[in-house]
Write a structure and sequence with these properties.
This protein is an alpha/beta fold. It is 46% helix and 15% strand. α6 packs parallel to α7 and α8 (207-220) runs parallel beside α9 (233-245).
Length: 267
């Protein structure tokens, strides 16, 4: 399971304040904690800043890279900011978060994706917005994957976000994600399916319980990763246990290692 630590995101009030104040200690501590909790990538997003986003993003990335060797998911709505982020990335292979099939964004981000040695998270969105059906989301995913691979992007570098949307709006949305994952994995088994997990519980009480249940269901149907809060120890414990139950953790080695390291909750 690919874990992308989601917490350094400027849409969160405390993060935005820390970025505004250049609070190095706060950002560095959060990056280090997400690393230690088991994140494979640290997502960094400064997109809430209309002015100065690029410089804030670069500052935050530098703070993160001083305390962890994990690669960064460079998360921005602006191609220019992603381009600058790629220039200063140091820790292995970064992830670009994200590209869509919306014409303007596609034209802006596509050259960065093809030219850089990076993973790319692709959202199932086109000029019509977010499709309601799994069939339409899978269609957009196919277009994105085919266009990227034709341009020379290795298929192993491509991840698709089937787009998790709130269950409080439509109780069928969880199944739409699962069906989209299934369709994508059937056609492109090498492509990873990674989603923004916490969107599923927006507007509901006891959000962590919904998120935890959803990640287990998703994994059972082929979900490969998620943007999530890795400091939710119960969530991470359930992911480790699910990997073993799904025969993705030979001899339960990963689960046992995490347990011995104190990363798996006993209850």
């Amino acid at each position: 399971m690919v874990i992308i630590g989601e917490l350094i995101n400027s849409t969160r009030k405390k993060i935005k304040e820390a970025m505004e104040n250049r609070d190095s200690a706060y950002i560095s501590d959060l990056a280090k904690k997400q690393d230690e909790a088991g994140s494979d990538y640290i997502d960094v997003n400064a997109g809430a800043f209309v002015e100065g986003e690029t410089e804030i993003l670069k500052w935050a990335m530098n703070e993160v890279q001083q305390v962890t060797e994990k690669p960064i998911a460079i998360d921005s709505p602006r191609g220019s900011s992603i381009a600058e982020g790629l220039k200063i990335h140091q820790n292995g292979k970064p992830m670009i978060n994200s590209i869509t099939k919306e014409t303007d964004r596609w034209n802006e981000i596509f050259p960065l994706v093809v030219e850089s040695d990076s993973h790319i998270l692709c959202l199932c969105i086109d000029n019509s917005g977010i499709p309601e059906s799994a069939d339409e989301r899978a269609r957009i995913a196919s277009e994105i994957i085919d266009d990227l691979t034709k341009a020379g992007k290795p298929i192993s570098d491509i991840a698709i976000d089937p787009l998790t949307t709130p269950l409080s709006v439509n109780t069928g949305y969880g199944l739409v994600v699962i069906d989209t994952v299934r369709m994508i994995k059937e056609r492109y088994p090498e492509v990873k399916c990674i989603t923004g997990l916490s969107n599923i519980s927006y507007g509901l009480p006891a959000r962590r319980q919904v998120n935890r249940a959803f990640v287990v269901m998703g994994m059972a149907h082929g979900l490969d990763g998620a943007l999530l809060d890795p400091l939710d120890r119960t969530m991470m414990s359930m992911i480790r246990a699910s990997e073993a139950l799904l025969n993705k953790d030979p001899f339960c080695a990963g689960f046992l290692k995490a347990f011995r390291s104190g990363l798996v909750s006993k209850e």
